[in-house]
Design goal:
- By secondary structure, the protein is an all-alpha fold.
- Helix 3 packs antiparallel against helix 4 and helix 3 packs antiparallel against helix 7.
Length: 154
């Protein structure tokens, strides 16, 4: 048996965490919100990454990014909020869950990849490094989704 980490135990015992964990409908609703948020993130990233890889060339890349990326960020913010709420209900178990830890590392990699891509200036679909980053983005996000599903099974 492992000794509980005090901060994780405190999160687990918070009234909000207890309510989320014990309500018959709140946690499943929270999971549904999290899934919709992830769909929004991945769906919008998929469109931009495919455009970076040469699909939909008739659509101006900068215009597409300007209209789609705010939706990506909104979906990410919603996923973070819903994810944090789900985390506090099982914090101690999750930090020991291999799929959860890998998912968090992949999220860091996805954020780093996006920050590096956007730090180089306007998006350029003719740049080889941009193509590599677009492919990496798609693969990382697919892995994030897979790890998210595996959390319940490992």
């Amino acid at each position: 048996m492992t000794t509980p980490i005090p901060i994780l135990d405190a999160l687990h015992q918070m009234p909000l965490a207890v309510w989320l964990r014990t309500s018959g409908w709140v946690y499943p609703a929270l999971e549904a919100v999290h899934i919709v948020a992830i769909a929004l993130v991945f769906g919008t990233l998929w469109i931009v990454d495919l455009r970076l890889l040469g699909a939909m060339r008739r659509i101006d890349l900068q215009l597409l990014a300007r209209h789609v990326i705010p939706w990506t960020l909104a979906g990410f913010a919603l996923a973070v909020c819903s994810g944090l709420l789900m985390f506090i209900t099982q914090a101690g178990d999750l930090v020991g869950n291999r799929a959860f830890v890998i998912k968090m590392c992949l999220l860091f990699a996805a954020g780093t990849n996006a920050a590096l891509l956007h730090s180089r200036g306007p998006l350029d679909d003719g740049d080889r490094l941009t193509h590599v980053q677009a492919i990496a983005s798609l693969l990382i996000w697919l892995a994030v989704i897979a790890c998210g599903r595996w959390i319940a099974y490992v």
